[in-house]
Amino acid sequence: MGTKEQALIVVPLIIGVFCGLFGVLGYFIGSALGIPIRLYLPMPLRAIGAIVLAFGFVFMGWLFKYRKPTEVLISTYVTMRKSIREAPAEESPSRTEPLVVKGPHRHVRHPLYFAVVVLLLGWWLVLDYTFLLFMALLFLFLFNFVVIRFEEQELRALFGEQYEAYAKAVPRIIPSFKRRWH
After folding, report:
1. How far is CA 159 from the centre of its chain?
2. pLDDT tens digits, one per residue of 87-132
3. What is the pLDDT of residues 57-75, one digit of tens each?
4. Phi, psi (5° rounding) for residue 175?
């Protein structure tokens, strides 16, 4: 089985495990804090959730216009394998795709992570389950303090000064539509 086939199986399984784990953790965090499972949000707020959800799907679709889902899964798999082996970021790269700085990447360095958090927040508002809010926060924490740190080490090793300049100009996970990468 090649890298592509492994990536298409392993990465979605790991994402599913994290979703399940963070869903359960979100439920227990809410319970420990005495927050009810549902807040009975007013309909206007839930309607805003539908708008947030639609924005998340549109944003993710915009991302996939510039990076195909299979490319994302394969690069994620390669980075995960390197991280698990504790290989240095400078190790001979098996990632061959160019640095993408078009589309949503002009406004945020990690648009996929932003879209995932936005989608979870949208689902939280629409469905009114507090564990979804905690899931969004847990994923934001995981992305920002674990995943992105290793990923950016690898990107700096692969693209050097080009990535350094990009990282200085474009925010990490919360987009800025004022700044634009050229």
Report:
1. 21
2. 776 665 566 678 999 999 999 999 999 999 999 999 999 999 999 9
3. 999 999 999 999 999 999 8
4. -65, 150
Q: Report the distance separating Cα 21 and Cα 177, nearest Å.
A: 33
Which letter, b or e, does each residue of 83-114 get, where b requires 16 or more Cβ atoms within 10 Å of its Cβ? beeeeebeeeeeeeeeeebeebbbbbbbbbbb
Residue 64, token pair as written in the block? 């996939």
| pTM recorded for the entire structure | 0.92
The SS3 of residue 1 is coil
Distance CA 147, CA 83 (A): 9
Q: How far apart are CA 78 and CA 85, in angstroms?
A: 11
Token pair belonging to 57? 């799907």
